[in-house]
Amino acid sequence: MIASIGRFAAAHRRWVIIGAVLFTLVAGGWGTTVFGAITGGAGFDDPASQSSKADKVLAGPLGRQADDVVVLYRSTDRPVTDPALAGPIQSAVAAVPRTDLDRVDTYWSTGNNPDFLSKDGHSTYVALQFKSSDDQERVKALQAIEEKFKVPGTEVRFGGITAMTEQVNGLTGKDIGRAEMLSVPLLLILLVFIFRSAVAASLPLAVGAVVALGSFAVLRVLTLFVDISSSVINVITILGLGLAIDYALFMVNRFREELAAGASVDLAVERTSATAGRTVAFSGLAVAISFASLTLFPSRFLSSMGYAAVSVVAFAVIGSLTLLPALLHLTGHRINSWRVPMPWDRRNAPPRLEIEGRWYRTAKAVMRRPLLTTLAVVALLIGLGAPFLGVNWARPGDWVLPSSSDARVVTQQLGTDFRQDPTKTITAVVALPGPASGSTGPLGEYAARLDSVPGVTGATVTNTQDNLARITAHYSMDPMSRDARTMVDELRSQTPPDGATAQFTGMPASRVDIVDMIGARVPWMALFVAVVSSLVLFLAFGSVTIPLKSVLLNLLSLSAAFGAIKLIFQDGHLHDLLGFTPIGAIDANFPVLIVAIAFGLAMDYEVFLLSRIKESYDRNNDPGESIALGLQRTGKIITSAALLLVVVVCGFLTSSIAFMQMIGVGLVIAIVVDATLVRAVLVPATMKLLGHRAWWAPAPLKRIWRRVNLAHGDEVSTPTAALVEEPVNG
């Protein structure tokens, strides 16, 4: 079937290319409206958690008591109580429209409350609570009134959860543009270096550009059916570009091999689609399955990431299997034109076929001591992952922003210059068996017990409504610290009044709920990915041994990335180089995303390598020789693909958001480890140990596999040529 798609695309190449160009233009226009269509907010919370349920109750008649935004005023030359400043500040605040605001508190409106005045008297803040309980609606409301707070002679900064969300949203679009401006020119240079031909280099980049812009249209369509988290766009667009270039790289390389083996252009396109195209399809399926596991998580951020990623991966596969054959046929033998000479090339030396080159010799060397090599690499990867055992989990907050951002500065100044940070509150929603107004005594006693919990600096009943009561507690420690988790656990362990139930919300409580939810779902995610990926690999290769080996090696390769992330982002190593301030914790969403993305990419390279090993094994029935030939035919191209993907992923490292930097560092390390230690060393060693058993399956399963006919789904003769290499690249 894949060969048929390639034949159709090649036969109708002009219409396919015209359609792709028109689609890209539409995607570049309508698709980019996705930034304004995202209504799902950040979506980090678990809707079934205690904190989310409490938030829903507080959104009703009981009401919230939370400072969504803290507007911080500071003067360097005079106290803010000086009439020359106090008057303009009060006038500015009074002029702010109250349409979307529930509460506005200032030093003056609270009867000169000293909590609103800094210790040196040069700073004060205005606490805002919006009517809406939706974070994106609050962001829009803040943007509508932000300018009203400006007062000449003062430095005005905006902090709090809503201001943090607004600032993250603002950086997201800038980060995408900067990442693409840096990566695309470098990708073109690397592709020219890899292919030695400007024409060949342009094809993966062309497909990548179509997929990258098309991803916006795919996401825009998704917003019509599901809420998409505002944090998804960075990850999805960059990965869409990287995967499309990866897939195109493999197919262009195979097309050049077929031409070098003497095939006509028509036959070369057909064989490329039947072999590399089929591998791209299976690889894309494996990657999509890995991403689909994110939908097992109830938080909107992870589930919408899963929906979006699966859609974009499918789009990347479709683009590679349709647009690329059309471009390949249109290019034909000109694919090697505009050759770019390298200083080390022999003059006028034509490309040659290399069978026993560098990668072949590497595989042979590894297979001479396969058990020792396997044990050494496994021990190394486990050792690199060992630091991860001391991880402390966090949830996204203002710590993801640059240290110079308003939200970070406000949090720092509230913590050091003021008596109390008004944003550090935990709210208890108490449901009583009878009217709350008749339970003031028991409620007061319960609030006193909450006040006695270490870390709590005050807890009082702040509202009652029917049988519901709201208790607001202030706390002193970092909400992402281990002490904050202990505080939440102790608060929840306090016994409420007889017959009553209590639910807690606030940053520390939601952090505990997110971490617990992810911890409970990760085993199911791992089981889903392992089982379904194994099924895909069985369908691809007809073996039950290969899937088990692949899953274990791919999970093992992630350990180095996890260990490095703990050392860098929790312990603070290299924080000056990357430009972030460590908080002694790692976002709990990180391992889930890295497992989904890196495991999918590892499967990507695994399928490409095993496909070429299986081709050789089917011809010579020699396990060792087929491993060496398979690595020779894919080693250079997998390394090149990994390098290109690293360049794309490095776009995350340029992000101003620490969470995106975590993803970038984790993926770069995972890709490098997988493309070197795992693919070039561990796979040949373990495959040698398995020998013929690598392709074993029980007879009934083997018969089913042959009946399905996935071994040779396209009736196209296979070439006899080996990998096309440059003279210097043995």
TrEMBL record:
InterPro entries: MMPL_dom, Mycobact_MmpL, SSD. The keyword Oxidoreductase does not apply. It is found in: Cell membrane. GO terms for cellular component: plasma membrane. The chain crosses the membrane at residues 181-199, 206-226, 232-250, 280-299, 305-330, 371-394, 524-544, 551-569, 589-610, 637-657, 663-683. Belongs to the resistance-nodulation-cell division (RND) (TC 2.A.6) family. MmpL subfamily. PANTHER family: MEMBRANE PROTEIN MJ1562-RELATED, MEMBRANE PROTEIN SCO6666-RELATED. This is RND superfamily putative drug exporter. It comes from Kitasatospora atroaurantiaca.
